[in-house]
Write a structure and sequence with these properties.
Layout: H1 8-11, H2 14-37, H3 42-80, H4 84-121, H5 126-132, H6 135-156, H7 158-168
Helix pairs in contact: 3-4, 4-6, 6-7
């Protein structure tokens, strides 16, 4: 993890990686099944909205913590060396990438959850009813988020671009 970069390989074992991936898939499967089955129940919609807001706040807190940690490392490195501009530009690039990812997440998922909020708060209001007609567009935005996130990583990371080029060209 970024918080314990030097201990990453001892922390992230194969077993922990498998358990983490299985947990994410299980949580996704359970929550989507509940939503599909009980999508007309306001309590379920409120739980989904709460989960979205919780995840959004969690991501913000983790990103702020990462930025603070990166800044602390940057300051300690800068005090030892005379070339702080190189480290600042790379730190700034990471911060920009995380900001782009968070912004894309909010843009792609926000309208869907606004839709859910409107279903709960004003299901018969004409404005809300008009907004409901865009539901399929909101689903497309969610799918686009899954497509765009890896592209952001590829276009923001020289190492990932090089690896992608090798994979696509089969190392010719």
């Amino acid at each position: 993890t970024i918080f314990y970069a030097l201990r990453y390989h001892s922390i992230m074992t194969l077993q922990r990686a498998v358990v983490t991936m299985a947990s994410v898939w299980l949580a996704s499967t359970v929550s989507s099944t509940i939503f599909i089955t009980y999508y007309r129940n306001n309590a379920i919609l409120l739980c989904l909205i709460g989960f979205f807001l919780f995840m959004l706040v969690l991501m913000l807190v983790l990103y702020i913590h990462m930025f603070a940690l990166a800044r602390h490392h940057l300051c300690s490195i800068s005090s030892q060396q005379k070339q702080p501009t190189i480290y600042r530009s790379s730190s700034l690039k990471g911060a920009i990438t995380l900001t782009i990812l968070l912004g894309v997440f909010f843009i792609c998922w926000g309208p869907f959850f606004l839709h859910l909020i409107l279903i709960v708060t004003c299901p018969t209001n004409p404005f809300c009813t008009c907004f409901f007609s865009y539901f399929n567009l909101f689903l497309i935005l969610i799918i686009c988020n899954s497509v765009v996130d890896p592209l952001i990583y590829v276009f923001r990371s020289q190492e990932l671009r090089r690896t992608l080029r090798e994979v696509v060209l089969c190392s010719w």
